[in-house]
Amino acid sequence: MTMTSTTTTTALPGLAARIAASDLFWSFRRSPVVIAAAAVTLLLILVSALAPWIAPHDPFDLATLDLMDSELPPAWAADGDWRYPLGTDGQARDVLSTILYGSRVSLFVGFASVALAGVLGVSLGLVAGFFGGWLDAVIMRVADVLLSFPAILIALLINGVLRGALPDGNQDSVALLVLVLSIGLTGWVQYARTVRSSTLVERAKEYVAAARVIGVPRLAILLQHVLPNVMGPVLVIATINLGLAILTEATLSFLGVGMPSTQPSLGTLIRVGNEFLFSGIWWVVIFPSAVLVVLVLAVNLLGDWLRDALNPKLR
Amino acid sequence: MLAFLVRRLLQAVLVMLTVALLAFVIFRYLGDPVNLMLPEDATQQQRAELRDKLGLDDPLVLQFARFAGNAAQGEFGVSYRNARPVSELIAERLPATLELVAVAALISLVVGIPLGVYTALNRRGAISQALQALSLVGISLPTFVTGILLILVFSVQLGWLPSFGRGDVVDLGWWSTGFLTRSGLLSLIMPSVMLGLFQITLIMRLVRSEMLEVLRTDYIKFARARGLPRRLVHFRHALRNTLMPVITIAGLQIGSLIAFAIITETVFQWPGMGFLFIQAVSFVDVPVMSAYLVLVAFLFVLINTIVDLLYFAIDPRLRGDRAVAGGHST
To answer: Which residues lie closer than 8 Å to A186 by C-beta, 6 or more apart?
Structure first.
C-alpha cells in the first residue's frame, strides 16, 4: 500500500523539481502543527520586540513599584488584581511585564549568538574546505574536540574564561556580551562541518577552475562563487540552533552565570522564581517556564519541519 | 588487535595532553590569582609572598611541567574561594555526583529498554503512540523546568520527597554514600529521575528503532517460520541483537550525564562536583575550573576508550582485517 503512494509521487520527478520553490509553502500549509508553531514564534517575537510599548508596567522602574502590591496571585485567583494579569513577584514587579521584557532578552541573545556562530562557522568551514592543508586540519580537530563534549559544558567553560579574561568580566553590564560570545563560540561547529564538506565538493567543480584560469583572485572566487553555493543548509542549521541557543541561554541564566536579575532573561526569571517556590508563590516561576517551553518547542518544530521540507531525500 | 589498542591509547593520551594544556592556559592567564585570593587591603609584602608560594614567577615551561605533573597526581592547587586544596574539595564531592549519575543511568536503562521493546512490538497501539508523543515533549522540556515541576508537585504540594541535598550519608572512609539511609535514598529519587528522563526517551527511541530494524531481518522471519514461540523470538533473538548499539550509546551518554548533572545539582542543591563547578565559574575560581575540566575530560576519554574496546570485544565482525569504526557516529 505504501509502495503505490510513493511511486505516484516519485513518478513525476520533473514536475516536482519545477514546483520545488512552492513545495516549501505547500508542506507548510499542509501541517497545522507547523502553522501553529510559526504563529506562536512570530507572536512571541512581536510582543517581545514591542515590550516597552505594550507591557502594562515598566518592571525595572523602581519608582513605579509599590511593595504593597508584592506577591499578588494571578488576576483570576481570589486575591488577584487585574492591574497585574499574571500576578506580581516578591519585589512587586508585574510578572507579565517581566516575561515580555525577559523574552526580549532571551530572543536577542538567541538570534545574536546564532548569527555569531553562523558567521564564524561558515567562514571557518569555507577556509577549511577551500584551502585545506594544516589550516583545515587544525580547524577540524578543534571542531572534533568541541563536538565530543556536551554543548552546555563548553558554553559554561567559555563563560567562566570570558568572565575572568574580560576587564570587568564579572560586571552585570557585560553579561549580555559574555552570553552571546559563550553560546556563539560553542555553536559554530555544525556550520563549519557542513559548509566545509560542501565547499570540498564545489571546489572540484569546473566553474571554480574556470574562474581560476581567467585570473580571479582566490578570495573573490571563495566569496562570490563558492559561498552562495554552500549556503543552502545554513538556514536549516540556524533555525535548529536557534532553539538550542535560547535553551542554552536560559540554562546559563538559570545556573546564575547568565543575565543578572536587574536585566533578566527568561532563565533568570525562572531562577529568581525558583527561590519563591516554597512560599507557595508558584506563578512567579511557572509562567516564565511555560513561555520558555512554548518558545523552544515552537522554534524546534519549525526547525524540524524546515529540515524535512528542504531535504530532497524525504520529498 | 594490538595495533588498534596502541593507536587508541595514544589518541587518548593526546587528547588528555591537549586538555591539560588548555587547562594550564586558563589556570595561568585568567585573572590575577593573587588579587583574587587576598583581601583588597593586603600589603605588598603579602602579595609577593603569595606569588612566590604559588610559583607564579617561575619560567612558563617549568610551570606547565609542574601543572601537568601535579594534575597527573590529582593535585590542582588551592581553591581561590575556599582556600582549601582542590583535590580535597573534589574528593569530597565526587561520590555524590557519581552516585547520582549511576542511579540515573540505571533508571534510563531499566525504564527505557522495556518501553522501547513495548513500543516496537505494539507499534500501532494507543499506548505506544502516546509514549512516542510524550517522549517528543520530554525532549523539548528544559531539564531545569522538569526539576522545578517535580519539586513543585512532590515536595511543595504533596510533601513526599525532600527537595534539596543528599539526606543522611554514611561515611565509608574515602567514600560517602547515600544508598544506606532512608533519607539518602528518598533524596536520590527526584534528582535521578530528572537527570535520567532525557536518557529514558533517548534509549526508548533507540531501542524502538533498532528493534524494528531487527524484526525485519531474515533470521527473525526464519525463526518465526520454524514455529518458535513469540516470546523466544522477541527476547532471545531480536532483543539480544538490539542491545549492542544500545549499550554503546548508553555508555557514551554517561559522559553527558556527568555534564548535565551540573544543572540537576543546582536545582536540588546536590553537593556534587557540578555544583562545585558552577560556583567556580561564577566566582572565576580558576584552580577548581581547570581541575573540573581535566577530570571530566579524563572521564570522557576513559569512557569512550572503554566503549570502543568493548565494541571490539563484543562484535566478532570487527576483529578481522576490517577497519574499526568505533562507537562514534562522526
So the answer is: A117, A146, A151, A154, A155, A158, A248
Nearest CA in chain A to B274: A153
Q: What is the pLDDT of residues B239-288, one digit of tens each?
A: 777 777 787 788 778 888 888 888 888 888 888 888 888 888 877 777 88
A161 interface with B at CB cutoff 8 Å: yes
Q: What are phi and psi of B81, to 5 degrees?
A: -90, -45
Please name the amino acid found at residue B320: G
Is A40 near chain B, with CB under 8 Å?
A: no
* C-alpha closest to that of A276 among A106, A101, A93: A93
Tell me which residue of B222, B218, B216, B215 sits closest to B240, measured CA to CA.
B215
B38: left (phi over 0), alpha (psi -120 to 50) or beta: beta
Question: In Å, how far are A89, A211, A232, B134 from A205, measured between CA atoms?
Answer: 61, 11, 17, 46
Q: What is the pLDDT of residue B323?
A: 45
Q: Which one is predicted more confidently, A119 or B233?
A: A119
Burial B285-301 (b: 16+ CB within 10 A, else e): bbbbbbbbbbbbbbbbb
pLDDT band of B322, cuts 50, 70, 90: very low
Strand partners, B170: B177
Mean pLDDT of chain A: 79
Report residue A214 as a C-alpha cell.
581567467
Cβ of B27 under 8 Å from any chain A Cβ? no
Q: Considering chain A, what percentage of its residues have pLDDT values greater than 70?
A: 79
Distance separating alpha carbons of residues B38 and A143, to the nearest angstrom: 38
| Domains of chain A with CATH codes | 24-314 (1.10.3720.10)
Dihedral over Cα of B168, B172, B173, B174: its sign? negative
A308 vs chain B: nearest CA distance in angstroms? 16
